[in-house]
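Reviewer 2 asked us to include a model.

Predict the structure of this chain.
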Amino acid sequence: MQPPEREIRAAYGTSTVTVYQAYPPEIGLPAAREGRFPDAWKRDRMTWVIKPR
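Predicted model (structure tokens):
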């Protein structure tokens, strides 16, 4: 069976949802190393909408 092309990974409880976002190495590695996103990361590309049931 092939893994899905896209999937959402999250941890959840009764009052919170934590969603994990993957980044390419040129964004993820500097962010992890320096504790902030590099200039290559653009906030306007984030389009998350999470709706409670």
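The radius of gyration is 14 Å. Strands lie at 9-12, 17-20. We have added this to the supplementary material.
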